[in-house]
Each structure stands twice: as structure tokens, then as C-alpha cells.
Amino acid sequence: ARALARTRKLAARGNADAECRLASAYYLGQGVPEDYAQAAAWYRRAAAQGLARAELALGALHDLGQGVPQDYAQAAAWYRKAAAQGDARAEVNLGVLYAHGHGTLRDYAQAAAWWRKAAAQGNARAEVNLGVLYEHGQGAPRDYGQAAAWYRKAAAQGNAIAETNLGLLYSQGHGVPQDYAQAAALWRKAAAQGDAAAEFNLGQNYYCGQGVPQDYTQAAAWYRKAAAQGYADAENNLGLLYDDGQGVPQDYAQAAAFFRKAAAQGDAAAEFNLGQDYYSGQGVPQDYTQAAHWLSEAAAQGDRAALNILEGAVQRAAITPAPPHFGNPSGFSGLDLTAVHDFGKFLVLDGAWWKVEAVDRVNSGVWLPGDTVYEIPGADSRCVNPLSVVLLDPGSGRACAHPVR
């Protein structure tokens, strides 16, 4: 309390370091109630005196919208001031804004330039980001060797993301000789820091016997660690182990529970698996409407296996076709031209399933007699597995469809 009181007195006299320390106290709620607005006010006073770490902090508040309205342009301006003083964290954050196009035009070359400055100071996050640019060919030609080199620098500092990413390069043989054992060793280091992707990857190693002896029990243990952090792929794979009784007692209800967790995050494989469970009544009560819903979600992400059994689920659910309807469903209104396609089976439009049996190309999107509309609770307005044929309204040039009876 005495230290805080002294800090407050010094800050009131315009001491920049004290102003910054008082701002941090408000930001963290240390000795005072947490108050981002007060933190921003005191950081601003210190930044006005050119204190780099206050400029960095004020940029971060604008970046995140804490205590001030979110404003990427303001964030960039404050980061730039701190970066001009050589603050590596500001250089990293400014690079991130350029990479995402926040507050400025997206410019990977500028992002790389700022990250290179920070990396020259040994900033591990900048080294990781440079590795990502080289791995994906953003702002520079793809170069897995360079990606590996930058990841290695950051991994040498114990950066978990770098360890995970370098492990992937070893697993795939990109820029380094393929070496599953080395991949597993790197992932083990990252997993020890709680990195969910590394935990999942170790689970994969144990499941497949790559770089480690095959061990379904170990696979389940690592999947469980990643799943506890909400990692959708791990939740789905743990569900599969329960489904098959591999490394865990066979338990269809547990499998369905894990599929549901992953499906809630939009994981297409889990949506398909949960849809199958409802279709067959495995681990959940048999429910064709629920099956149709989850299979539709998977199919909307291009899962052809889901699409293949979706019609059966719709038919078994005894979903009543909608009455004849003329004109555009509201879901078609103003969609861009890539949104509607002829697939020959199902489309989700305006919350309803449309079974497409024929399309009159001459009339630019008039749907012929025989088309059927199925209402499926919970379906959203996305089209399933779009192909290349776009139906256009000759008048407006927009995608359209007219169900005809």
C-alpha cells in the first residue's frame, strides 16, 4: 500500500515511470480495482513523455479495445512510436497489424521487415512469425528450409509454438529430413508447456506408431489432454477411440459426448460422426431429425460421406415437404454469384433443404417440377458442397432459384 501511495504521488508530479507503473496497477487490478480506462489514461500521460513501454501498452489497449474504443490505426500509431525506439515487442505487434491488414493495408513484406528487426534482438515470437511466413509463402517465396531455421531459433528459446511447428516440418519432411522421432521429441517439449496442438500431435504419433511405439492408451491420454483445452480434433479422435474401444473401454455414449463437443466447434468429422450416431442410435437415442441436422452441417463443409446418407436421414425422419412456393426464398436475396450451384442432390437455402432434381439452364435458374423442399430444424442458410455451375437471374445478374410445381 505504501509503495502504491508513493507511486501515485510521483505520478501526480509527472514522473513518467511512476505513471506507467500506476497504469499497470490499474490494468492488473493490483492494489486498486481493475480499471482499463484508468490504465489507458495513465499510460497516455507516460506515453506523452515518450516512454516506450507506455507507448507499447497504449497501442495494445487500442488493439484490444480495452479502456478505449478498439482502433487499429491508433494501435499502429502507438506501436510505431515504441518501435522507433527499438522496442522489440512493439515491432512484433506492428508486424502483426500489417500481416492481418488491421489499421493498414495488408502487407506481408512490411510485416516481415518489422519481425526481422525484432528477431535481430532475439525476440522468439518474431522468429516464429518469420517461420510461418516462409512456411506458407506469405510476402516471400515458400521456403521450408528458412521456415525450419527460424522455428529452430525460437525453439532454442523454449517457444512452444516453434517446437510444435518445427515438429510438423520433421513429420512432413519439409525443409528437413523426415524424422518422426524428432517430431515426437519436439512435440513432447511443447506438450510439457501445455501446447494443445503438440498434445494432439503426440496422440497421433502414438495412435499411428510414428516415432514412438504404437500405444492406443498413450494416444488416448494425449488426446484427452488436448481435448481438455477444447481442441476439436482431439475431441473427435478421443470419441473414435471410445467408439472402437481402443486404449479405453468401448463406450458409445462417451464417444457421442466427445463428438458433440467437437461438433459444437464446427468440426466436420465430428458432425458426421455424431450424425451417424443419431442415425443408428449408437450412444444416443435414435433420432433421424437430429441425424439430418448434424449430417447437413458436415455436408455443408464438403463432407461427401455425410451427403451420401443425408437423404436417407431426411426420408426416415418423415419430414413433410413444404407446400408449393413461388419466387425467391429470402436466403437468395443479394447473394454473390458463387453462392448457388447445381449439385443434383441437396442445397440449404433460407433454412430449408432443397432437393434439386433438374435445372432449366435456358431460363437461368428456374427449378423444374419435381423439386422438393424439406424443412429441417436447425439447418442454416449454406449451400452444400458447391460445384462450378452458377445459376444467374438474367435481369439482375444475381444468383436465383424459383421452385415450380
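the 2nd protein, sequnce then structure:
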Amino acid sequence: MALTKRRRDFEQLINDSRLERQRACRDTNVLRPSLLAGAAGGYHASPRGSAKRSESIDPMILARRPNDRTIARFLDSQAGQRFSYEAVGATAHSAPAGFLVQRTRSELGTGAEVFARAKICLQQWQQFRLGWLRVFPDGAPLEVGGVVAILARVSMLWSLNACRILEVVDEAGPLHRFEFVYGTLPDHAAKGEERFLVEWDTTDNRVWFEIYSFSRPNQLATRLASPLMRKLQRRFCRESSEAMYAAVTART
């Protein structure tokens, strides 16, 4: 069964992440983006030491919008990286201590058709089509282990942030659920997890969209600018909910 396979993959990812933490004292060379690089992007090799050391490195920050080649190289550099936090999979139960928890839930409509459209919208990453955010690769499939880059524009700068999909759930029953979860990789402004869910409760026929996350700053810059980071997270949740509603209702 597909769900069983996803759970096995999910458990393997958790185990791999724990093993990586145990081996963190071993230095290896990885590609690192140069800060404030041009649109073509610049990389240099630097050692990756302990988990603590990697947490202090800033994500890729650009003075101009990166081109497709730069984004592809960034994704390649993150493909072999482990999650940047310990509590992998914690969105399934409770968030770890010391993380900011955020939950936004909004109604999309009623009935099976609305749920089916909402599911398609989530598969197409409609919640990220906000003008100042975009996901790469464009139309990335929701597959466990897939790595995506989230391109964000904040003021005059662009930032690339890497995540890995760690769970995809598609359940039917009295409560129909479709959701996916991704976790942050070392090159991300924050560290933590985020879950996107569409849900149809057949007892009252209502369809809901929910974002649930736990996070905290991953670099010195984002620690210093944590009020701005929280403001951007609230903006993302609000605008994502609006984007999902608009996408779902546009398909009627």
C-alpha cells in the first residue's frame, strides 16, 4: 500500500537524520553559496562541521533574482543534506520546546467537489503563488524525499531556502484528509517543519485548509530580525489561505 511505503520512507528519513547528527563531527566539503552573489550565483567549498556550526551559516541571499541555473545548483547542493533540526516528524504529534508554533485554519467551501479541487491546488503548490514567493522546481511533485527551494523576495533582496518533503498523506473516510509535510535543510532562514492540509468532514460537509508549523531562526541574521520573520510568517499564512480560497473557487 502506498501509505505504508510512505511511512517506511518517513521512518528511514528520521533514522538517517539521527545518524547524521551522530556523525556531525566529521568534516566534509560541500558547496556553499556566496552571500550577496549576482544572479549567476557564486559557490565555494567550505567545511561542514558540527550541527551547531552549520546552523550559524546564512541561507543563499542574492541582490538580484537568481536565474534557473543558480537555483538548480542550489538544489543540487542541498540534495545530500540532512534536516537542520532534531524533532523530525513532530508535526504529527506535538512541537518541540523552544519553537514558535503557528496554526492557521480557514474554510474553503463544502462538499466533495470543493475537496477534490483543494487537493489539486495543494498538489500544484497554489498556496505559494503569492507574487513574493515561489517554489522550485516549478510544479514539483509531492514525493517523500523530494527537495524544493522556496524563493522569497523581502525588500530589495532575494532568498533561497531549502526544504525536503518528509510525509504525504491521502486518507478517505468520514474525515477525508490530504496533506504533506516538509522540513528545513541547512540552507534555510528558519529551522523546523510545516504541514499543509486540506480536510473534508463529511459529518458537516465543510472543507478546510490548514497550515501548521513550528520554527525558530536558523542563522544570526534571522535571530536578530526575528520580529520581521514572525511578521512574514503571519503574512504567508494569511495570503496562502486567501490564495487557496481564490484558486478553489475559480475552478467552480
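Residues 1-7, 13-58 have pLDDT under 50 and may be disordered. Strands lie at 28-33, 43-48, 60-62, 100-110, 133-136, 147-154, 157-171, 175-184, 190-201, 206-217.
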